[in-house]
Input
Amino acid sequence: MSLTQSARPTPTLFNVSADNWRLAIVVALVVSIIAGIVLPAAVSFWLIGAMVALVAASFVVNAYRRRYYGGLLVAPAIAVLFVMNIFPLLWSLGLSFFAYQSNQQSIRFVGLNNYIKVLTNEIAAPDNWHALSNTALFVVLTVSAQMIVGFLLAMLFAKQFPLRKYLLILVLTPMMLSVVASGVFFTYYYDPTFGILSYVVNDATDGQFILMSSKAGAVAGIVFADAWMWSPFVMLLVLAGLVSVPKYLYEAAAIDRVSAWRRFWSITFPYIRGLLMLALLFRTIEAFKLADLVILLTKGGNDTMTISYHLIRIANEQNKTSEGAALSYVMLFMVIVLTNLYLYLANRRNKGG
Amino acid sequence: MSTRTKIKGALMAAGVAASLGVADVSTARAEEVTLTMAVPDWPPTRVMKKFFDEQYKPKSGNTVKLDVDFIPWPDFYTRVNASLTSGEKKYNFIVSDSQWLGAFVEGGYYRKINDLLDADPDFKKTFMSVHENPRNAYSTYPYKSENYYGFPQFPDVLVNFARKDVLCDATEQKNFQAKYNKKLPCTGEEIDAMTWDDFKNIGEFFRRKKGEMLMGKPADDDFYGIAFQAGKGYDFSSMQINGFIWQMGGDVWDETKVPNGQAEGVVNSPVAVKALEKYLSMIDYMPPVAKTGTMDIFKSDELFREGKVAMNIDWIGVGEASLDPKTSKVVDKLVVGLAPGTPGPDGKLVRWSNIGGQPFVLTTWTTDAQIKEAVEFVKWWLSDDIQNQFAAAGGQSAVKSVYENPKYVTYRPWNRAWAASLDWQKDVWHVPQFFELLTQQQDQFDLAITGKQDAKTTLDNIAKFQQNLLTEAGLIQ
Output
């Protein structure tokens, strides 16, 4: 570190050189601000983009000359992350403060109005809150179903038995299928005329069974399909934990004649707890974004509209871009709070244990 | 120093590459014109492309290429919407549902064609030879104004697909006559003369459980008399419900009456409530999937092709599959008539129905050279010869001289219902708020279809929402 720095002194602020990133930032700021005020938006956008590139380039040259190779190596990844993720994210955050529709040419600053509309407007807000409470229902139901089924499957597959390898592949297949394929499969499964479910129930009860005609049925249908697809994911994670438990612990427990229940709580569970938490976290975030299955199975009918699907309709179909952006940020905020709360709890319990 | 030179070199190379890319687009040679087109992937557009490749010879002597993007139907709106709003300016021609006109005209994407029509009397004559109803639906924004935008690609109407083996069966005929004191419609003409009450009777009459007698032998599965669209997706209930409302003398919010036309009091008028109640009263006789809100135009067609229903009201556009033995159990049993009507005060049937089908439109960034070729292409497309070939290959034509040709009814079983239907077609809103109006209305209709709320509440909710949205948009004063 000291070697490289002594090799080349950092240029002073006004020294024009390719590695003077401080000067680059000053120039970029000044040019951007002037361009933003003077030039039309279509030109200043690209000019400001060029200024960002200039600053980035000066950082790269600086890193090269002073041999910060670690920084250089991660630079491409950071560049891609910035262009593909961070920039669009910030851009949409900006849009959420304007009245803008993607199919219209006008744009106007409205401050927090979009957020106020999304949360309090007498026509828009009830739909949003309603979709949000539906989403909460789905999160609780799908995640608990997946955790329970996935966990039980993992306990099953942790043991050796004939054909285990092949059965394992079979159990993992739903996770690998595309959601659309599974969705179409389940629409036929639940269909009252063509579907096997109604066929079997009708034969047994001599009535007309229509699963998807009530909210309870529709929710059950969606939860079942989702659990069918994602329980194997939970199983994989838990299975990894189960396999990592050292055999000698069980052997010692056997010598001590420890009960099966006790063996599970004091040996197995501590090993898989972290992975269970990870599975729970992943599935909760995913369940919060549930839209594909709902679109395929009910189109949001029978009161199964989720916030994600609602958002797709607002932002993509109705082109209410900035209102959609505002709602997305409200959603993002909730997910971040939930995740952090959850991580905090998980960590505290770990320390306590 | 060497680093600096390298960077400069790289920058210059990038600059040169960029300018080459730009030059490549702008200096397309005059003799070669490419028209890029976004279309849904289904037979009517495949046929269009095939005819173009095989038969089209531009009069200008230029080489004209039609570069077609076939996009699957479920993705179509999303893809077109994304392409237009992102500003990529990729397509010169776009197949568009008529209701999208307002949204994309206001966005500055669809090109008004009045100047092209005025500049070319031949073109205008061809264009005006399209039946007035589809022309208004496919081409005008605001609806029924004289601002023209599109040309018919595949015009479509709702017709009654029926099974003659079931309807003409002697036992069924006898039993129906005994029960309703009316002849069970069996031929095309008899189906044409049906009212919605007859339709409902057929639904009630043919409701058979598995094992009950159908056509003199036990049915091997549950059987139903009738089906029509009652789905929550896209416009899969509005397109049928609008017909009921118009036929019974009610109305939807009428865009041609801006700014004085109201939603409150019109959309939820007592007549409209009655019409919706009538629509809903038939759901009970349909296959049970209707109660789940997923009986869209594809599901009812599938039920018909699988032989589970006797009659299905659906678009001609989905009909082709029922003629293919690989996808249909009713190929040799098909008879098609007009969709049912409602008797008017003079006893004649009122048949208002919501028009289907799609126009294709020109985009605003299409260059003059491209426009010249595009106009020639459209003239060729709407010419009698090509329209006849198109109809013979399974398409439909809204050009008078084509569908009035006696040959026309021989092309497909449903063509006999075509000309008579055209006079009774109307369209819904072309305004930019179309999608909001539609999704809210579909959500509300779905609640009624699945039995969660009654017709009055449904229409009250729709009227309130529309009044509010359209007042904010300045379309209601």
In short: Chain B has a mean pLDDT of 91.
